[in-house]
Structure formats: C-alpha cells, structure tokens
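Preliminary data (for renewal application), ribulose-5-phosphate complex.
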Amino acid sequence: MKWKNNLAEQPVWSGEISNRDRKDEVAQKVSRFVKDGDVIGIGSGSTSFLALEKIAERVAEDRLEILAIPTSKEAEMNCSYYGLTITSLLNHQPDWGFDGADEVDGKQRLIKGRGGALFAEKLVMASAAKTYILVDESKHVEKLGKKFAVPLEVDPRAVHLVETALQTFDCEHVQLRMATAKDGPVLTEAGNVLMDVRFAHIPDTLEKELSAIPGVIETGLFIGYSVEILTV
Ligand code: 5RP
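Predicted structure:
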C-alpha cells in the first residue's frame, strides 16, 4: 500500500524567506525547464524550496512524470509533500539539477552550505550534467568569501586535527558552528559538525587542498562544476 501523501500540514521549511519576490521569480524560471521523464536533482534552502513548489505545480498541470533526487532530508520531505516520485543516486543519474548558493563570483565559483547540506548537494551536483544555481543579485560578490565563511563538514573526532591543519592555510578565522550555547554544535544529517572558515583569498586549488585534510568530509566551496547561474 502506498503511504498517503500530505500527512504534514505544511511543507518543511523553517523560517522566513528573505527576498521572497525575487526568489519566486527565479523559481518560476527554472520550472519552465522541466520535461517529461527528467530525473532532477533537488537542492536545499529557501530558493530551492520555492523552485520545488513551482516545479510541482508544472508537473501536476502538465501531467509530467519526473523523478526527484533530493539533496537533504528537508528536500526529500518537501518532494514527498508535493507528491513527487523520489529516487536516489544509487538508482539514477540526474539529467540536471537546481540549487541555491550563498555566494557566487564572476568565475561561477560558489560558496554553499549555510543550511548544512553541502555534502549531498555536492554529490548530486557532481553527478548531474548541469545544475542551475538560483540566486538573486545579493548573492553575487566580486571576491568569493567576502560575506560568507567557507563551511567544512568535519567528522567530530577530527575537529582539533582540522583546526591545526588550517594553521598552514591563509585563513583568518575558524569557528565551530553552534546551534545555541546550550544545545552545542550544529550536527549535519550524517552526524558531523560544521567549521566555518574565513579565507583572505580563495584560489581555485583551495577546494581540493581542504578536502585532503583528514577528517574533512566535504567543503562548501564549489569550483569548476557544470553550473548555469540564473539570477533575478
Ligand atoms: C544549503 C545551501 C543553500 O542552497 C544556500 O544556503 C542558499 O540558501 P537560500 O536559497 O535559502 O538563500 O547551500 O546547504
């Protein structure tokens, strides 16, 4: 028996959505790309959530059959709420995907991971032929790392090891992401912690150099992936 959908009264999205009109516009834009039979990587965060809503509307109106590969539990629950058929990277390769970003520079390099879903987001992006990055103008920066630190997903046992290794990098500040002082560190879906690291400069080689530190599961730097930036 199939589970009844829409058990939750609301889709999963916590918090206010800033810049909502702009995000709705870019969400509408990406929904026009959906074709019958597509396998689509579904990003996380507020812009991706709005895009998912618009895509679900198109799927229902045009009776399209698509498969969704969510990049987080939040995205998975939203796909389920909207009645989309969910699959995984074990079974399908995404034809294309969409996702948000925290910063984008002129060379299409991204910082992602404010929502902590960077690991699965990178797996899905690396598997897709193309990913549309949905942003408003406020996400464009002249210099990557200007507003946002680079998040690292780190095995909790490796926090000190990674902190020590970072001393050999040109970094300005390292912070363990905390939920609240009382609740302790934010944990990712895989039970890892996040270290937010500010760098004075972000060369193209940095993503790979950070990934090589033992204990770093993934970085929020996305450099050299097949992306198309959709800006409103
Ligand atoms: C989550 C992400 C998000 O895509 C990024 O934080 C942008 O979020 P929003 O669309 O809410 O501004 O990387 O890990």
